[in-house]
Design goal:
Blueprint: E1 2-7, H1 8-21, E2 29-33, H2 40-46, E3 54-58, H3 62-74, E4 78-83, H4 85-100, E5 106-111, H5 125-128, E6 136-139, H6 143-157, E7 166-171, E8 179-184, H7 187-193, H8 216-231, H9 233-248, E9 256-259, E10 266-270, H10 274-287, E11 292-297, E12 299-301, H11 305-312, E13 317-322, H12 332-337, E14 346-351, H13 361-373, E15 381-382
Parallel strand pairs: 2-3, 2-4, 4-5, 5-7, 6-7, 10-11, 10-13, 13-14, 14-15
Antiparallel strand pairs: 1-8, 6-12, 9-11
Helix pairs in contact: 1-2, 1-6, 3-4, 6-9, 7-9, 10-13
């Protein structure tokens, strides 16, 4: 294990390199790659790495990048790509296809605002628009978690109880281009953590049809199988946490991460790097005598309903922070979480940091003050924090 001072983009590329080499005794590694700010330096760095078996293919579009990944994965290779924003939108048809083929592809998605007008800064709307595609979705708070999550994503996605693609999401520039001390594993450790991929439905020398026509009942059966596989992710993830801790000496975060929740009356729920800012504001509020806690949603898909509901019991007021907007409705996280709160609990949505605006402890303090003084839940509030 070595400690390196790297950006989250490079941390992801280092993890992918180790994961790709770990499959050298099986069918190797490969993927399709296409640049888009702010993930470009991840694939640029990855292209400088050497693999014992396999290679990366430079393609003409994000749609083709995922198509190449599907080809590699169907052959039994470990596969990876990265994208962001409008690139993910262009890729969407094949994002669905990879999932419905039950291919354990891993993709790093650097969260960036969709355009036009063009904006290269962070917004979670690009990956949240893909929430119904059947991919596992993990949201990261720091560079170490990006590195660890790539390895965890392969371990969970390739488990035969799951066999689904996984998306590792990180905030544009806040993480992607920010340098942090990151522990990088040794190849021997990754070899122990990631068994060689043995995809049961890979293409062989025997003729086979992939992606044929389904009649209604067959589609119902496939969706039921897919849904059940997502439901098994929690148990597989927990097993992978144990194994990861045993090999690497640190434990990946749970699907829902609590902070000072033991006696909290008010709760702030967030995802990604916003959570670290929330913790600072929670500490300041605690110093003033307010019983405030926080929940970080680490896994958005599958939706950790039971875990969230358990943490929301007995709370008086809940603030749900969204770095996204479902236009005409409100925040995506709020729309999914509000039904889990007890009936008498006040749940208020705050959308902030859209388009990459700074989210500072003072902004969270303002939200907490608004939450404390509210008499009832209101319409989702769009906070302007860009200045």
């Amino acid at each position: 294990m070595t400690t390196q001072f790297v950006s989250a983009n490079h941390a992801a590329a280092l993890a992918v390199t180790l994961a790709g080499r770990a499959n050298r005794g099986a069918r190797g590694f490969g993927g399709g790659i296409y640049p888009i700010t702010p993930q470009t330096e991840c694939i640029e760095f990855l292209c400088t790495q050497e693999f014992d078996k396999g290679s990366l293919v430079r393609v003409e579009s994000e749609h083709s990048a995922m198509a190449v990944c599907m080809g590699y994965s169907l052959s039994g290779a470990r596969s990876f790509t990265a994208s962001s924003s409008n690139g993910l939108a262009y890729m969407t048809e094949n994002v669905y296809a990879a999932s419905f083929y039950r291919l354990p592809i891993v993709m790093m998605a650097v969260n960036r605002t969709l355009g036009p007008p063009w904006n290269i800064w962070v917004d979670h709307g690009d990956t949240l628009m893909l929430r119904d595609t059947g991919w596992i979705q993990l949201y990261c708070e720091d560079n170490q978690e990006v590195f660890d999550s790539i390895l965890m994503a392969y371990r969970v996605a390739e488990d035969r109880r799951v066999l689904l693609p996984a998306m590792v999401c990180q905030d544009a520039f806040v993480l992607s281009h920010t340098m942090m001390q990151t522990e990088v594993a040794e190849q021997e450790q990754v070899d122990r953590f990631l068994p060689e991929l043995d995809l049961p439905h890979r293409v062989t020398h025997e003729p086979v049809t992939v992606g044929g026509l389904d009649f209604p009942h067959e589609t119902e059966a496939h969706r039921a199988q897919h849904h059940a596989a997502l439901g098994r992710v929690f148990d597989v993830y927990a097993e992978a946490q144990d194994e990861f801790e045993a090999i690497f000496g640190r434990r990946p975060a749970d699907p829902v991460v609590p902070y000072r929740m033991e006696d909290a009356e008010h709760v702030v729920v967030s995802m990604g790097t916003t959570a670290s800012t929330v913790r600072t504001a929670v500490d300041e509020a605690r110093e003033q005598g307010f019983k405030v806690g926080a929940l970080r949603l680490r896994m958005f898909r599958p939706w950790p309903e039971e875990l969230l509901a358990r943490w929301l019991v007995g709370r008086e007021r809940i603030a749900v922070l969204d770095r996204d907007i479902s236009l005409g409705h409100g925040g995506v996280l709020w729309s999914e979480l509000r039904g889990l709160a007890p009936r008498d609990t006040l749940v208020q949505n705050y959308m902030l940091g859209l388009g990459g605006g700074d989210i500072r402890p003072g902004h969270i303090t303002e939200i907490l003050e608004d939450l404390r003084t509210r008499e009832a839940s209101g319409a989702p509030a769009l906070m302007e924090v860009g200045q």
